[in-house]
Structure formats: C-alpha cells, structure tokens
Amino acid sequence: MKRLLLLSLLPLTACGTGVGPTSPTGGRPELPTGVEVRHPAAPAGTTVYLSLLTEAGESVYQQAVTAGATRTEVNPALWRDQARQARPIEDWLPEGANDLQVSAPGTPVLLLHWVMWQDRDGNGQRAADESLNLMTHDRAVYAEQAVTATFKTAIPDMWQQWQFAAGWSRAEHYVYLPSGQSTYRRSLQSQGLGRYELHVPTPITSQ
Questions:
Q1: For residue 156, is the peptide bond before it cis, meaning its omega torsion is within 30 degrees of 0?
Q2: Which of 138, 127, 122 is closest to 36 using CA atoms?
Q3: Where in 2-56 does DSSP place strands (E)?
C-alpha cells in the first residue's frame, strides 16, 4: 500500500522540481512603466524612433515607434545610469541669467530632452536631417537632492523658477504673461505624471 502511494506522488514531484522559465517575467507580459511620450501620428515608411538626448545631442535612450501611433511607452530604468553626467545646477542656466538664488548651491543636475526622427538611411543612427519638426519644453531631469533655483533673463524678459525633486522626474514647463506686465513668468517643475508631449516648435514664451 505504501509503495502504491509513493508511485502516485511521483508525477507531482517531477512537476514541482522542473526547471523554471528563463524569462525575468516568467513568460508574462512586462508591466507598463507609466511613462510615455505623446506625439503626432508617426509617419509610415522607414522606422521612426524616439530618442532622449543630452544638451550636446548625445542619445542616451532610443525607442522604435509604431507607424501611425500617437503615444509610445518608454522605459526610464534604461536611462537612470545617466545620472553620472549630472553637473551643478548653475551650469544649466541660460546665458545672461542674473538675480540667481539657489536653495542648495552646486546641486548636481541633468536635463534631457526628447526628439522624434525617421531613419531614412536605415543605419539606426540619427542624422541631423532625419529629425522631425517636433519638440517639447518639458525635460527628463535628475537632481541629486531637491533643489529650487530662481533667476531672471533680459532676452526674453522672463523670471524663472526651476524646482526639481530628488532623483529622476519629468520637469514640466509652464509660462504665462501677467496682465499689464512685460515680464513673463516661467516654471520648470518636477511632476509625478510621466507624460511627455511632442508638438510643433514654439518659443519658450509659449505654453
């Protein structure tokens, strides 16, 4: 009787000790990242990409875009190590900035921006004439600690406040002209919603 009981358990034991799946997600679809770029419908033809660029134009992340798509999910985990490129926040201020006040002087910061381009020559690398006529004033930002900077510029006549949370976030651009005044007020502030929007080029004074 005991022998029969052991034999009946053998198939269950074999199943329980089998080699597990090699996929990190166990074969399940990957979970959404919650971060996306919205954009006009991607053109058909050769492959279209979204690239996240440094100030110098170096691509630190690239994602293919489906033809006709108007939103593309991106994975922030794949650019987090770029925090090593952070520089003091003062280095990022526009030329001619004055009346500067910084809550934590010297805080390392990195600002990155999105572009969309079509790989017309098929080599997988962005050329200057392959960029689509789209942009965003929002930024992917890294700050070593929470920091706020305020300053003024003469051209354009603008008062700005940059307010960044510690770590990575999306810095949202907002600007307006108070009634009866000539000095614009602009903010670039960390937001929890990871949604970037590419649009036709507009000046920094445009919302």
A1: yes
A2: 138
A3: 35-38, 48-53
39-61 confidence digits (pLDDT tens) = 999 999 999 999 999 999 999 99
- Degrees, nearest 5: CA angle 63-93-169: 40
Output the six-digit token pair for 139: 């930024």
In this structure, the number of other CB atoms found within 10 A of the CB of residue 190 comes to: 20
Residue 162, exposed/middle/buried by CB under 10 A (0-12, 13-18, 19+)? buried
List of residues 6+ apart from 149 with CB closer than 8 A: 89, 90, 93, 100, 101, 102, 103, 161, 162
pLDDT of 136-190, one tens digit each? Answer: 999 999 999 999 999 999 999 999 999 999 999 999 999 999 999 999 999 999 9
pTM: 0.83
Task: State how far the Cα of 171 lies from the Cα of 188, in Å rounded to an integer.
Answer: 6
